[in-house]
Amino acid sequence: MTGPVVLQLSVHIAAPPETVFPYFTGPTRYVQWLGGDATLNPKPGGEYRVGMRGGVQAAGVFVEIDPPRRVVFTWGWTGDHPVPPGTTRVVVTLTARDGGTLVLLRHHGLPTDEQRTQHRTGWQLYLGRLHIRVEGGDPGPDPNG
Fold first, then answer.
1. Helix, strand, or coil here: 141?
2. Distances 21 to 6, 8, 50, 83 between C-alpha atoms, Å
3. Among 48, 102, 108, 144, which one has the highest count of C-beta atoms within 10 angstroms of its own C-beta?
4. pLDDT digits (tens, 9 = 90+) for 37-90
5. Distance CA 105, CA 102 (A)
6. Rounded CA gap, 40 and 59, in Å?
7. Are 42 and 71 in contact (CB under 8 A)?
8. Can you point out the beta strands (E) in 67-125?
9. pLDDT for 99
10. How many CB atoms lie within 10 A of CB 143?
11. Predicted structure pTM score
């Protein structure tokens, strides 16, 4: 018997975890790599809401905050979407490695292969944008924000 499928992606960023962590918890930094606007209250039970194109929002709540090592939040989409707000869980772990940070993102609970494929594509795009931004580059406007 196999367990639930977990989407897992990673990126290495040439900056310490203390530099990377605020990009997951501070609204101003968050929208530099993902979304057009963000309401983030990084404490257990605090609001997680990121505005995307067309008025759709990624929405959930923060579950765990362990600076600068770990952020956990629930995730889903507003509107008519097969992944409603708060129905999945995203776990981000930051580990000091090779003079920088290994960012490991695990997305739990996506209901179908199609949703896992779509979210894999999205997270790959956004982790690439995070990498550019944290290392001092400009990833440009969010194509979906």
1. coil
2. 22, 18, 17, 26
3. 48
4. 999 999 999 999 999 988 899 999 999 999 999 999 999 999 889 999 999 999
5. 10
6. 10
7. yes
8. 70-75, 88-97, 100-108
9. 96
10. 9
11. 0.95
